[in-house]
Amino acid sequence: MCKLFNGLGEQVLHAPDENPFSGHLFIFRGRKGDTVKILWADADGLNLFAKRLEEGHFIWPAVRDSKIAITRSQLAILLDKLDWRQPKTGRLNSLTML
C-alpha cells in the first residue's frame, strides 16, 4: 500500500459514483492485509488515517465489485483486529452503579 494522500484521493475521484466530499469514509486495505488507510473529508480538506499491524492481519469482509459498505460498529471491530463475522457475547464479571 504505497499510495498516499494524492493517490488515494485520485482513486476516489475517478471511481464512478463516488465523491470524497460526500461525508463517507473511504477505506483501503493493503495487499498483505496488515495495513488499513481511511480517507475522509471535513470542512478544511482531506484527512488520512493509517493503521499498520505489527502481527496478524485485519479481518476483511467479502468484496464484490471492488467496494463494500460497512457500519460504524463493523469499522470499529475491524480496526480492533477482531473477527466481526463471528461476534461473541460476553458477560460482565461485575457491575458497579454510582
Structural description of this entry:
- It is built from two helices and three strands, in the order αβββα.
- It has one domain (5-79).
- The mean pLDDT is 77.
- It is an alpha+beta fold.
- It has a three-stranded antiparallel sheet with strand order 1-2-3, with helices on one face.
- A hairpin with a 5-residue loop joins β1 (26-29) and β2 (35-42).
- The protein is globular, with a radius of gyration of 16 Å.
Q: What are the defining features of this structure?
A:
17% helix, 3-stranded antiparallel β-sheet, 98 residues
Shape: globular
Termini separation comes to 47 Å
Q: What average pLDDT do the residues reach?
A: 77
Give a short account of the largest sheet.
3 strands, antiparallel
Count the DSSP helices: 2
Radius of gyration: 16 Å
Helix/strand order: HEEEH
**Class by SSE composition:** alpha+beta
Poorly predicted ranges (pLDDT <50, ≥5 residues)? none
Strand order in space, largest sheet: 1-2-3
Which strand-content bin applies to the residues? 15-25%
Number of domains: 1
Q: State the helical fraction.
A: 10-25%
How many strands appear in the DSSP assignment? Answer: 3
Task: Give the topology.
Layout: H1 5-13, E1 26-29, E2 35-42, E3 45-52, H2 72-79
Antiparallel strand pairs: 1-2, 2-3
Short summary:
17% of the residues lie in helices and 20% in strands.
